[in-house]
């Protein structure tokens, strides 16, 4: 660094190479005090740099505006991202850490980290299969568990430290309410829930057998999360991620060709049995006559629709609202944050692309106050998806058969008439839809279905 002038700094890059580091690239810097505290905001470049300092800079190219230089540093925290094609498991992108030459540890495949609230998606899917609905009320209130599987009494809390009373499942997932997830798991039973989550590719023997499972206390690799979220993206089919499509020898002859299970809406008679994805060796070029391996459906179309609907609300109205910057309505996902902000996640998808982003320290130290999934991991996910989805059309969420839409009271979840204050629309599986009253406040009973595309009342709290 050569000199400072107000909020600008003059830099020397090499012979006859001098640039100006403007305040746009400097203002982010703060003095580090500890993981929860920073120094005061700088006022001038001299508050950050002194002549003679050897610094790192990065050429920032914004979506709008002119490129500029930005003060940079080698981060101590690590990050990782993996993207998967949900139709067959093909890995489209994988970043295992900040720099391979600084650390060769692949955090996507080798790290085992707690997924936090990102695991709630699978708990909620189990609840919907057990007969709960997005309108089911679960009490978000203080509770103490004396679980013999735990070392001491457990007093779980929401991240905010507040409790909100009876809460609809849809709203609880949107706001990531911890106690609702715990009560759901306790009501369904740990054993049955563990059996259910194996549908998403998880090994129940490696997951905790206590109520902390509801908050994502198991140790899971990010690639496993991509496998699980692919089920929620592709319509309910289990696929296994794979790396290699084919291998050719020095004569360009194919000596290996992957044959992953894939989505078969109408499985052909010759389709192989539904088994975990394997690869098949071949000695010839791939042909259209190769046997098709069909992925197994593991959740119903109705369960898939409801989970997608609720997880889209997480983006549009919940803890992942920053993802609205993508300008799309077909994005769904779930933030994840563990105790003391040791892990930050965002697990998100649309119909054609799944991406998992993680940030944390290799030594499990806290990231710092406020470094939750929606702040620490989501920006990287947005940056990747902006390119990954560029030029693609939005994928509509089509309602399957066996579903009905009704007006309900936003507080009670009960069916109400069209003029009811606080009425919102909700979708139900027919067999779990609430009973329609014959009389509501003197008004005739409700119709069995409503137009889902009709505008919701202004009182809709989402």
Please describe what this structure looks like:
This protein has 462 residues and is an alpha+beta fold. The chain folds into four domains: 3-72, OB fold (Dihydrolipoamide Acetyltransferase, E2P), CATH 2.40.50; 78-237 and 299-388, Beta-lactamase, CATH 3.40.710; 240-294, no CATH class; 401-462, no CATH class. The protein is 18% helix and 22% strand. It has helices spanning 120-129, 169-175, 178-188, 190-197, 222-233, 301-317, 373-388; strands at residues 3-5, 8-14, 17-21, 32-34, 37-38, 56-60, 68-72, 78-84, 91-95, 137-140, 165-168, 237-238, 246-248, 254-257, 296-297, 332-337, 343-350, 353-360, 403-409, 423-429, 439-440, 443-444. Strands 9-8-18-17-16 form a five-stranded antiparallel beta sheet, with helices on both faces. Strands 1-2-3 form a three-stranded antiparallel beta sheet, with no helix packed on it. Strands 4-5 form a two-stranded antiparallel ribbon. A hairpin with a 2-residue loop joins strand 1 and strand 2. Helix 1 packs across helix 3, helix 1 (120-129) packs across helix 6 and helix 2 packs across helix 6. It is globular and about 80 Å long.
């Amino acid at each position: 660094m050569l000199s400072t002038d107000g909020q600008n700094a003059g830099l020397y890059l090499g012979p006859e190479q001098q640039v100006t580091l403007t305040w746009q690239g400097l203002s982010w810097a703060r003095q580090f005090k500890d993981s929860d505290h920073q120094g005061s905001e700088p006022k001038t470049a001299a508050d950050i740099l002194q002549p003679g300092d050897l610094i790192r800079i990065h050429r920032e190219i914004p979506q709008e505006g002119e490129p500029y230089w930005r003060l940079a540093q080698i981060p101590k925290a690590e990050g990782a991202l993996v993207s998967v094609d949900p139709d067959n498991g093909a890995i489209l992108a994988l970043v295992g850490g900040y720099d391979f030459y600084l650390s060769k540890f692949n955090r996507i495949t080798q790290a085992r980290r707690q997924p936090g609230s990102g695991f709630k998606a699978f708990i909620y899917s189990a609840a919907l299969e057990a007969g709960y609905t997005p309108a089911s009320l679960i009490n978000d209130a203080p509770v103490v568990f004396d679980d013999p599987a735990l070392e001491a009494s457990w007093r779980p809390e929401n991240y905010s430290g507040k409790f909100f009373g009876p809460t609809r499942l849809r709203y609880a997932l949107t706001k990531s309410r911890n106690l609702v997830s715990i009560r759901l798991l306790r009501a369904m039973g740990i054993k049955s829930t563990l059996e259910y989550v194996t549908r998403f590719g998880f090994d129940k023997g490696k997951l905790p057998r206590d109520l902390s499972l509801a908050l994502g206390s198991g140790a899971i690799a990010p690639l496993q999360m991509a496998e699980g979220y692919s089920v929620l993206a592709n319509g309910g089919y289990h696929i296994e991620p794979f790396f290699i499509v084919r291998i050719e020898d020095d004569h360009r002859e194919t000596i290996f060709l992957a044959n992953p299970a894939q989505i078969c809406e109408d499985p052909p008679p010759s389709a192989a049995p539904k088994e975990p994805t394997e690869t098949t060796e071949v000695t010839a070029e791939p042909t259209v006559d190769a046997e098709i391996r069909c992925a197994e459906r593991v959740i119903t179309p109705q369960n898939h629709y409801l989970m997608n609907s609720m997880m889209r609300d997480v983006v549009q109205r919940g803890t992942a609202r920053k993802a609205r910057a993508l300008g799309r309505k077909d994005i769904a996902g779930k933030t994840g944050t563990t105790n003391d902000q040791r892990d930050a996640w965002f697990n998100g998808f649309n119909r054609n692309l799944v991406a998992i982003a993680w940030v944390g320290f290799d030594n499990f130290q806290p990231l710092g106050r406020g470094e939750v999934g929606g702040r620490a991991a989501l920006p990287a996910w947005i940056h990747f998806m902006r390119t990954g989805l560029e030029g693609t059309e939005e994928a509509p969420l089509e309602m399957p058969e066996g579903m009905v839409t009704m007006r309900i009271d936003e507080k009670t979840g009960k069916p109400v008439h069209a003029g009811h204050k606080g009425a919102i629309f909700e979708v139900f599986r027919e067999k779990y839809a609430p009973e329609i009253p014959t009389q509501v406040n003197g008004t005739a009973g409700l119709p069995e279905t409503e137009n889902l595309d009709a505008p919701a009342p202004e009182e809709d709290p989402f």
